[in-house]
Amino acid sequence: MPVVSASNEGLSIELSSINLQDFDSVEESYYELEFNIENLGSSAPTFANISLEMQSMSGESLSVYDESLELSPGEIMAFSHNFTEIPYGYVVISVMMTGNVTTLESTHDYNFQRTLHRLIPLNISIGQSDSIILEGVDSSGQNTGNLTVNDGDHLQLQIPIINSGDYDWNGILTINLTEPILSENFTSQPFAVPAMQTTIFYFNSSIIMNEGLVNFVLSLNDSGDSNQLDELVVFSSTIYPPPLPHMTLSLNQNSSTVVAGEEVSWNLQVSNLGEVEFNGTVDCIFGTESILNTNLNISSSSVTNLSVSTTARPGLLSCSIGGDRISELSDGSVNISLLVESAEFESAGGDTPATLLGPWHEGDTARLSMLVRNHGSISGHVKIQCEVNGISYSGSFIELGSDEAGEVSVDVPMLNSGLQMLNWSLESYDGSIDSGLFGVLNLSILDKQTIVIEIESVTWTAEDGISFDWNVFLSSGVDREVRVRLGYIDSLTENFLVDKNILLSPGLTDGSMNIGFVDAEKVIVRVNEIDWVAGFGFSSVNLDVPSERPIYSISFDSQSNPNRPTAGETAEVSLTLQNTGTVKGSSGVLVLKTSAGILIEERSISALDPQTSVVERFNFAWPEGDEVSLISTWSVSEQRINAENIFISSVVKIEEESQPIPWTGILGGIALSAGIILVIRIRGSNRSVEPSKPRPSKEKVSKETNSELSDEKVEISCPECSRQLRIPSNYSGSVRCPDCEHSFEVEEKIDPTREIEQDKIDEKDSIEEQINDGKVQVSCPDCSQTLRIPESYSGSVRCPACKSIFRAGD
Q: pLDDT digits over 138-154, tens only?
């Protein structure tokens, strides 16, 4: 027991220095308790014992610590103790001093007690499977009220999420539900579970449950607590069947006498003994033929009668119901056999049909063929039928007498590639089919064969026009018949020059086509299948026709050789033929004739390369006439290119004939001139006393006449029209221009030293006389040069400036 001093002297705990408050919490398993012990009022050292104990909330002692203390008068001691292995939850820390101790009102005491809370770490878990509630709900989430979850219900799960720790949890729940037919995966939105609480999570399935076992996998996201095994729950539950119809069927034959091939009927009675109505179908099959298939609705505890009929033949009639689920106690089908004398068919060869027309590609037709025999006592009809991918195909019935055999067949289109299953069987409406005459054939159907059309090249030549090379490639497989059309396109219109059916073998088939000289923008090849279907590809291709063409032109050389030839003289005329295009031209014919249509010459012209020209020279006897008009026609590449030119002929050959020299006139003129000059001088000397200043004048020395003209020629110009004329170099006399018919005098060229000066006649004394010379002025149409020609002249005129020749009257 503590000894408490009445004089308030002794050791005491300073309450304000205790670092532990009541109900403080810690996360760790240890705690350092600290406080001060003070020696109050003693004048000598004081002794005491101190005891520290940790207890559970139930009073169980978890740890004890004792220590002796000695403090000098007024001394304050800082005391501390480390509590370890503190359990989760709440513990009570008690401190007690014994010996010479004291208390001082509310500030000092010799003992104290505090509650310490060690926090439990996060511990989130899903309740065990037996704590999870399963209930049936409808589509709106309302409880069905049934004690079990039945087939057709939606499922509701009520899942406890338990937080056993001292920390709030926030996370998501994942649910995986798998029932016999369907499955569902669900992930919740984040939700919270407070510390030390349990939350019920509600989940309604979006799928309808089916009878059987349903499996659940429930899991929380990674919480990070120390035990994650309790965050995953896997369990199963049973979905029970719903209330079901209880169905029974029965068959009764209506007629007692049956003849093969005639109609026979039965009464089918369908009963529902269950608690709910039945909605479904009823189906009756006789042999392999479906003879009744209809919808059926039967209320609870009711009966329906149906009539079933077919043509009489031996066989088994089977009727069954389908649709709604029925009770396991139901009898959902019924059978009845029909026995009647009839034809009986069996295989006369193999037990399976032969497959013909192969190998097959998608879109081809496979033929099933089988030899059958009638081993019955009377005749009957039989055929073969086949079903592929839900589509049925039937051959034609054949009639076979007793012990007679025949072939039945059916054509089946192969609409898909890959392995195809053909369900075949024999059928007869007035006979029986032996067992085993049905089955499945597996045919490997290849992908569709493809056609690739190509125009390799399109060319245009001046010799052949448009040509092109084409080919058609058929992929591997069988030979195929196609329709091939070859032609051209003009203004969006297809024109085919070749249209024929050909049999293509796998691989490349090619050819060439010449369509000649037509107006075409493109060439086209069109290929269409005949009684088969090709794979993906184009049925036609086209290609542009090259637009490059030769460009022809023809022109005359404006100068003949010689210039101005005379009629009958051999002269040469040159023509320039050009191809300024970018492709080679074709050979042609060049014709030269006069404007009157007289043929001069016709010659063949070789093909001209692009951007080349050739000069053709024609030598011929010059035609009559002052002017000769020549026309040239170049016939090439179905074109006619014309050129025309007018050449001037020489009418008078000055260089061959010289005019006679008028000696009498010349001498008479000289004498007359000398007399006139003498009279003028005499009059001048008598007119004035003062001698007048003599006027200088020139006088030409008479030239000596040559008895013969020189062979050397010189050119002179006509003073009227500037036409160049050639005359002998020593000719002196009159010259007449053949163009303008102007006559003028020429003199022989002499040395200037032979000229003499003569007096000039005073300009004031000269009388200028205006003489009408009969000339008119015309303008050159090319350069506007003004020319003077005789008024009456209407022939060709050559401009001296630009050398252009034109008619005077134009």
A: 989 899 887 889 888 99
Q: Is residue 685 part of a domain?
A: no
Interval 666-721: pLDDT, tens: 565 666 666 666 655 655 544 443 433 444 433 333 344 444 666 677 778 788 77
CA distance linking residue 324 with residue 246, whole number of Å: 11
**Token output for 749:** 């060229």
Note whether 168 and 182 are same-domain residues: yes
DSSP assignment of 486-523, as one string?
EEEEETTEEEEEEEEEEEEPSEEEEEEEEEES---SEE
SS (H, E, C) 553-621: EEEECCCCECCCCCCCCEEEEEEEEEECCCCCCCCEEEEEEECCCCEEEEEEECCCCCCEEEEEEEEEE
357 and 326: one domain? Answer: no
Rg (CA), the chain: 68
pLDDT tens per residue, range 248-291? 999 998 877 888 888 889 999 999 998 789 999 999 998 878 89
- Considering the domain architecture, whether residues 139 and 223 belong to the same structural domain is answered as yes
Using CA atoms, how far apart are residues 459 and 583, in angstroms rounded to an integer? 11
Q: State pTM to two decimals.
A: 0.43
Domain boundary among 286, 318, 338: 338
Query: Looking at the structure, do residues 351 and 270 belong to the same domain, yes or no?
Result: no
Query: Do 373 and 350 belong to one domain?
Result: yes
Domain that holds residue 83: 3-118
Residue 229 placed within a domain: yes
Residue 529 and residue 523 in contact, taking contact as beta carbons nearer than 8 Å: no
Whether the bond between 359 and the residue before it is cis, its omega within 30 degrees of 0, is yes
